[in-house]
Amino acid sequence: MLGFWLMSVCRARSLSLFGIDALPVEVEVDVSSGLPGFSIVGLPDAAVQEARERVRVAISNSGYKFPTKKVIVNLAPANLRKEGPAFDLPIALGILAASGALAAGGLEGAGMVGELSLDGGLRGIKGALSMAEGARREGLARLLVPERDAPEAAAIGGVEVYGMRTLREAVEFLGDCAEVCPAEAAVEEGRPVEVGEDFADVAGQRYAKRALEVAAAGAHNVVMSGPPGSGKTMLARRMPGILPPLTMEERIEVTKVHSASGEGNGKLVTRRPFRAPHHTVSTSGLAGGGSNPRPGEVSLAHHGVLFLDELPEFSRTALEALRQPLEDGQVTISRVAATLTYPARVTLLCSMNPCPCGYAGDRRKVCRCTAGQIERYQGRISGPLLDRMDLFVDVPRLTLQELREERLAEESRLVRERVSGARGIQARRQGSPNSALSGRRLREVCALRGDAETLFSRAVDRMGLSGRGHDRVLRVARTVADLSGEEEIAAEHVAEALNYRRSHLVGR
Amino acid sequence: MEDDDRAKYLFLSLLQARVGSSLVSHLGTLAPEAVLRTPVAELVGRARISEKASRAFEELQRAFDPDRMQEGLAARGIEVLTPVDEAYPGPLRSIPDPPPALFVNGSVPDTVSVALVGSRKASATGIETARALGLALSERGVCVVSGLALGVDAAAHEGALEAGGLTVGVLGCGIDVVYPRRNRGLFESVRRHGALVSEYSLGEAPLAWRFPARNRIIAGLAGTVVVVEAPEHSGALITARHALDAGRDVWAVPGPPGVRECRGSNALLSDGAGVLWDIPEFVEAVARESSVPAVGGGSGDANPLPSGLEDTEAAVLSGVGFEPKGVDAVAKRTGIEMPEVLTALALLELKGFVSRDGLGSYVRRAVP
């Protein structure tokens, strides 16, 4: 009698996505005599509630019998909010184990996640890589995931990942009736630079390209300013291609974020992300959040490039929300129930027109804006955000004649090599890119001597550099020196860095 | 009698702020009694007055209280000058359409004055030239008159202030209204080293039509008007026209041919304006009557960096023209690698050979 009672409660181990991390969830299933029914408790959201119908039908359609008894499913810990359809598989397996269709011992040491379709097939889920990481942390030996997500999940290592096509396959596998090989990690196909996205395809604009190279080398944020059609977007798209290739650790982080947001494709991301949200993006769309928190564009661009085209058109509140991630490299979303963080280490690339009509200073088109309009337009971007920008580049429009005369441009590959070299120097010297330098560390690393010092103090006087402008020039000069492999910042490095300061369009 | 006249002019100045100056200059010839108390209906018979104007007129007649108005102004330290006052600037009496009243914060200097006007969106060269002119004139004791707008105006005032000289800003709004807001600091400096002047009473807004009108006062206060840089249809050209109407000398700074920003000022030159091709020569010409003698040579700030140029710098400088040029164009013209061009440009800028405009383009400095 006692034995029967114990047998009727079965436990299946599963995981729930929380931010980009997975927390353990235990699925307890009790099948007892009573009025037939099926209920789920333990703070489930709507998608989890609907699991009842999916699980019931999927079990029948897989050739098993859904128990005509009272079925109660508890998702523990009960205080954690559970969302999404990934509990379908553990619930179904738990029910089958509790009703005797599967030996209860089969669930031992295995984690499982997956969404069921009505025919008993398994659909892909969000955050498989994070789940695998969670399973490894929990000491689970095996993790069952939908087949689509297996290559992604397997990338983490330390836990055997099995891709399952159907509920039936899972039952047979756990009941030792079928042999399945652990999945192997697969990386996204493709080269780090997409064909047609090479720097060599952009004619002219050598100044802007040089600036982007410096930005890439020091992970500096950039504002490009120029009239429509000058090639700002084209240049921005090619920025990821000159960044050093993602390391394995970075790939895993990037994949975790993409997978958690539902943008994953079951494989490990290899290319640096490039995200270009439209300027109508909402605050939570850009920074992350929402009632079911999702990573925002700034997190989806983690370890890559976030490109904000037409910067002044973005809503002020959305841009304000970027300040903290730009500062800390992560987004913190606080809720009454919990606080979660998404990583957000990005190179921010912005573009803007010099004035509302876009043609101020253009050689062929007349600008129709008044001085006041131009000033207001430029003033729309908040000071604190501008403080996070290290380079300001003007991108003029080229005439056809000028474009035709341009000689062949350098390939991204060559630029990337120089950038990787400079990043390497920075990693060895201070363990972080130059853009992160501030305060005392900045003064140590960017100490100026001799000519460089003289030149710099002259510049501070004559160009009226502010305190922040001062630090900015130092940081950029350090990167320029790193690019040419020099240990000490020379006068010429400072001089080049001075070109990347902000110019004021109106007035004096 | 004099008080009555003064009341008439104050009344007219308020009326002018509403209806513009053509009606007002006609009324200015009438007796105070006629202006202040004749029913409007009667005036309508004698002059062409629009319905809107006559309504404004009536309203003003009802509300006008010259004593209270003057007390209020005095309390705020603001002087109001009408043609009956001795202190009303002499040169203004001779222009075709003198303002009925001039509100003054500070004091209008009684010296040789030169007006410097030009585009609000001037090029770096234009700004540079305006500042250098303001400075040079000021050093010779010449008062610089301008309109306290952005661009050339602001640079002219600043140049004069830099030399510690006198300068007058003529506004198109009440003198307690700071417009454009950006020039807040400059307004205060100009007030302390000269005067803020307007024909509009306190609190009047900077309406678009008031600016061309105030230009006649800029031209009127100065003996000479210089157009530093003006595109076609620029307000600076209106000032030049007022200057000609008032019999003032008009000069213009020559700009490169075909450049949009200089088309207006170049057209003035082709119409016979004085060619301002050399600042010392010009200053000498206008400051002859000034009491401050020319300073012996060697003034001006000594350039602290060695003025010699390295080979690359000289080569890059040859690639920078008098028309703004982007960095790419300079690099292409000289065939020098980008990082070196950037380095050379910054050094040239620090040495004062080139300047960078708001669009990141470089231009040779007219006055190193």
Please render the helix and strand layout as text.
The complex is a heterodimer of chains A (508) and B (368).
Chain A: H1 2-8, E1 9-18, E2 21-32, E3 37-41, H2 46-49, H3 51-61, E4 70-76, H4 88-98, E5 110-112, E6 115-116, E7 122-123, H5 128-137, E8 142-146, H6 150-154, E9 160-164, H7 167-174, H8 206-218, E10 222-225, H9 232-237, H10 239-242, H11 248-260, E11 274-275, H12 283-287, E12 288-289, E13 294-295, H13 297-300, E14 305-308, H14 316-320, H15 323-328, E15 330-334, E16 339-343, E17 347-352, H16 371-379, H17 383-387, E18 391-394, H18 400-405, H19 412-430, H20 439-445, H21 450-462, H22 467-483, H23 491-498
Parallel strand pairs in A: 3-4, 5-8, 8-9, 10-17, 10-18, 11-14, 14-17
Antiparallel strand pairs in A: 1-2, 2-4, 6-7, 12-13, 15-16
Helix pairs in contact in A: 3-4, 8-19, 8-22, 21-23, 22-23
Chain B: H1 2-19, H2 21-27, H3 32-37, H4 40-46, H5 51-63, H6 66-75, E1 79-81, H7 90-93, E2 102-106, E3 113-117, H8 124-139, E4 143-146, H9 152-162, E5 167-170, H10 184-192, E6 194-198, H11 210-221, E7 224-227, H12 235-245, E8 249-252, H13 263-270, E9 274-275, H14 279-286, H15 311-319, H16 327-334, H17 338-351, E10 354-356, E11 362-364
Parallel strand pairs in B: 3-4, 3-7, 4-5, 5-6, 7-8, 8-9
Antiparallel strand pairs in B: 1-2, 2-6, 10-11
Helix pairs in contact in B: 1-2, 1-5, 8-9, 11-12, 15-16, 15-17
